[in-house]
Structure formats: C-alpha cells, structure tokens
Amino acid sequence: MRALVFLLLVALASAKVYEKCELAKALKAAGMDGYGTSLSGWVCLAYHESRFNTEAKNTANSDGSTDYGIFQINNKWWCTDGKWNNNGCGVSCSALSNLQTSIRCAKHIVSNHHTGIRAWVAWVNHCQGDTSSYIKGCKL
C-alpha cells in the first residue's frame, strides 16, 4: 500500500499547469528556442495543444489514438500505452506528464518526423508567423 501511495505522489508531483512565462523559461533552459521553431512558437504550441497542462489527454482522435501531455504527443507513433506497437520516443505515454520527458520526445519528433514541427496540426493552424505575443512580458 505504501508503494502505491508513493507512486501516486510521484505522478502528481510531475503533473503541472504552467504559467506562460514559467513554461517559456523551462523551454529555453532545455534548448527549445530555435529547435524546429522559435521559443514563442513552442509556447504557442503548448497553449493550443494543452493550455500548458502536462496532464492533458485527448481521446477524440478519429483514428482512435490518444494524445498526451503538454505537447499532445500521440500514442499511435511516439509513446506506448499498450494500444499501438510504435513507440518512436521510447517512453510510456504516462511519462509525458513530465515536462522534461515531453521535451525530449518533442525534440525527437522534430528531428525524425519528415515534416518536423509541422507534425503538430496546432502549430500549422495557430503558430506560424509572429508568435511573439506568447512570450510578451516574460523576462527571459
């Protein structure tokens, strides 16, 4: 029973809804500025995918797949939850509630998917062009 409580506390400790500037600082520290898109582009993507929520989960995909985490990474190709055989990032989907795990996977997707950052429909629909407003006021 103690082990279960401990695991639950660990899972809750990694789940978070970020403020935009807090997320921008974390993404910058992780080297995301210029990694496929600008820092403000990543903040824009996280906003439109999850509203900065590391625990976000979307089960409404037409192919039956599920998106996980702050960047809404898909289980059909990039993480495993037991439903699909692909696991491009080599992580469990539940691990994507950790920002650092999501960042590593996002970097892998940008580097290995034939469309790079365009793998995210939210980036294509909302984050091309000037995204500077997404980090306006942040002291980076």
Mean pLDDT: 92
Question: Poorly predicted ranges (pLDDT <50, ≥5 residues)?
Answer: 3-12
Helix coverage percent of residues? 25-40%
Specify the biggest β-sheet. Answer: 3 strands, antiparallel
* Secondary structure tally: strands: 5
SSE pattern:
HHHEEEEEHH
Distance separating the two termini: 43 Å
Work out the helix count: 5
> What percent of residues are in strands?
5-15%
Order of adjacent strands in the largest pleated sheet:
1-2-3
* Outline type: globular
Class by alpha and beta content: mainly alpha
| Backbone CA Rg | 15 Å
List the helices and strands and how they pair.
Blueprint: H1 2-14, H2 20-29, H3 39-50, E1 57-58, E2 67-68, E3 73-74, E4 79-80, E5 91-92, H4 99-112, H5 121-126
Parallel strand pairs: 4-5
Antiparallel strand pairs: 1-2, 2-3
Provide a compact summary of the structure.
The protein is mainly alpha-helical. The protein contains 5 helices and 5 strands.
Describe this protein's structure:
The chain has 140 residues and is mainly alpha-helical. Helices cover 39% and strands 7% of the residues. It has five helices and five strands. The protein has helices at residues 2-14, 20-29, 39-50, 99-112, 121-126, and strands spanning 57-58, 67-68, 73-74, 79-80, 91-92. The strands form two sheets. The chain has a three-stranded antiparallel beta sheet with strand order 1-2-3. The protein has a two-stranded parallel sheet with strand order 4-5. Strand 2 and strand 3 (73-74) form a beta hairpin. The N and C termini lie far apart (43 Å).
